[in-house]
Amino acid sequence: MAVNKLEKKAYIYESHKRCMDLGIEFNMVLSRKILDGKEFEDRLDLNKELILNATPFVNQLYNFVKGSNFFATLTDETGCILNVIGDEDILSEAFKLKMIPGAYMDEEDIGTNAISLALTEKMPIQVSGDEHYIKVYQRWTCSAAPIKNKSGQVIGVLSLTGYSEAVHSHTLGMIVAAVNTIQKIIENNKNGEALKASKQYIEAAFDSVESGILTSDLRGNIKTINKHIYEMFGYSENELKHMNMSELVENLSSIVDIVVNKGQFWNEEVYINARKNKLQFNLSVYPILNSENIFEEITYVFMEVKKTRKTAGKISGCKAIYTFDKIVGKNKEFINIIEYAKKISDSRSTILITGESGTGKEIFAQSIHNFSDRKGETFVAVNCGAIPRNLIESELFGYEEGAFTGAKRGGNAGKFEIADGGTIFLDEIGEMPLDMQTRLLRVIEEGVISRIGSSKQLYVNVRIIAATNKDLKAEAEKGNFRKDLFYRLNVLPIHLPSLRNRRDDIPLLINYFMKKISKHLNKRMVYIDDIQLNYFINYNWPGNIRELENIVELIINTESVPIDILQKDTNFQFELYDLEDECLKLEYMEMMHIIKVLKKYNGNVAFAAKALGIGRNTLYRKISNYSIDRSIIEQSSGMEQGKMKNVPI
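User: That's the sequence. What structure does it adopt?
Assistant: Structure tokens below.
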């Protein structure tokens, strides 16, 4: 229960007094404690359950006040911010004050505020204007409520912050309602009681969802309806409330049987007896269970059929191949990462996979998809760095006929449309242009897209997994990447270790690739002795697993182990180009063959070109393209050497 005005003043007074005793400066700006890097990752790991259960309600809470200059935060029991989302203007101000994930909002580190009081007083509270201890926060009003576990212990705080002139008691009421629902879900995580407990709260959000939603009892009597159903079916509210679901959905009994036996009926096309004629929709059906796990009611979710999306997905071959059981490794930290990835696979929150090039980010993304309830749907991979800037919008969101010169007749579905119901993997997300980042943020927040040349909004149900080898947080601080988009993508972070940080997996990986590649090439495996294996284990692997795979293929093709590549004192180094795998392998093999021939003829370009069956200019171009160290070429051809880069490969 929230405190009254007099009590509130007493709490504020006592808190301000504690702040003075703690030596907190009135003019301080930043929290005394802000976690970063590994420390913050560990904090996120400790609060996985809270984040997974609370994040949908943090997003929903923000959607209720979106456009009103508010931002929502979720903290743990110590006051450390785990997640923050909000309108861009006020969020930018908060970021300047380092109110970011990792910052502590407890009394000891930032003075009196609603979050700190919710932690100390263990009850919902609202703090406005000069009730805040530090001056920079006095422009705001903040409502916060503690999230408690079954034993009554505080495990986190949910808050909503806006400008002080927007203070209103109903804001605190919204926070309390959301927290009550989160607590019920945490208490009843394995059965349908959570859904029942949050029914009123969820019904309030029904009309904000761009799908038609109905619930009924087991006899088909309709219980609740959202506004989109009336638009879809053409019936009035009064007409629908006096109808049975069997009058609307053909073969309803067989659908209910599937739900009873399998737990859900997911995204299948069905015919609906609408007011004027039969219409086709995508239907998903879910059971509502009571506290004793007994099937009690049914939820029906209707979406417009988008045949072009499914057709485009089939033609494009958008399918995830890899699964977790195909990932090779026994390193303890790596196994923990796999288990964590499995745990978050069914979450609808966005995932950001980070790690160096060649560490297997797409393999993890595919495995997450195949481990989730979306495994039967499309998996669309998009390399944001490989698409020309002027084409990325049409590639992601599609276009209508006549939208621009050269547009195909009938238009074209974008990657988000094709991925509807499934997963989209945005690789090299750090390369995405800033204007496209704005559009992507809207897709994450609202779940809608618009094709180029169309004003029609299309609802898409897409799980977003992004990946990068960049430090996105640093890029956001530099202004190269939107901060609000970074924090929306980084809800469930996964960092993949480099191969040099899991050296105990190298023998295992060599054995795996040796078997796989020798079978593919129809060649025998090559034995690697202990001394040679030691070179593999001690090499730094700048190209990570991708480089290791290519070295193994080279070994199989040449039937020899390239110790010179793995030694530190070589006259050239192997540089991994970011190309598609097959192309990469062919170019690497060509490069190594050119080096071998040049050495054979003591660097004589004319003789080497003749032996290779190519012209001298062609050989010089290849030497330049591959940046082959010019020390390999004979010193007598000094004039021609000047044309080449002095960069080792």
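The chain has four domains: 5-187, 205-305, 311-497, 507-641.
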